[in-house]
Design goal:
This protein is an alpha/beta fold. The protein has one domain: Spore Coat Polysaccharide Biosynthesis Protein SpsA, Chain A, CATH 3.90.550.10. The protein is 30% helix and 19% strand. The chain has 7 helices and 10 strands. The strands form 3 sheets. A 5-stranded mixed beta sheet has the order 5-4-1-6-9, with helices on both faces. The protein has a 3-stranded mixed beta sheet with strand order 8-7-10, with no helix packed on it. A two-stranded antiparallel sheet has the order 2-3. Helix 3 crosses helix 5 (146-153). The model has no long low-confidence stretch (mean pLDDT 92).
Amino acid sequence: MTIEQVPYVMIAAGRSSRMGCPKGLLRYKSRYWLEEQLSRIRSAGFHTIVLVFGRNQEQYLSNILFMEDALVTSHCREELGPVYSIQHAVRFLSNRSINRGIFLSHVDRPVPSSNFFKTLSKEIDFSMIVRPTFKKKAGHPVFLCNDFCQSLSTREITEECRLDHLIKNSNQLLKEVNVSNREVSINFNTIEQWQSFLKLEGEEQL
């Protein structure tokens, strides 16, 4: 199995109340941020892309272009947090007999450049959980091995569940890979953080 054969799951189910609109619909250059994210995933060569939406699905579907190559699913349980969205994606893939583990990221975490995945391909062990780090800070995308995904699929999810805690308390081995791509450690939850990210990217517009 190669990295490109692993499904890439992008979670975009949050309410984004502090942002004023879904995070994937923020403007980045001449397009929406989710369109940029999809472009980066495609550039890395992934065969299967899964987008997980919440109640915001119609907003995305009416605005985002070129999603024909992505598998789209949604749920209405945003109050249970991101781990529920991950579980939803795992079950969605399992129902399609796609059981290869997943690469996981969220719409508020930039997809790294394709050279990141070339570096990771030399380090990855598909029997383990693999997490990138930048200057000792854990980041995304995380590879969740199939055994972890199958365990997650049957777990009762509450709003207190956190992925890092589930990884720490699982029986799966964790491999951390130090990378030079600073974007793996970035996430934005407020307009100010988004503006800081744009500044880092050399952007001046919202």
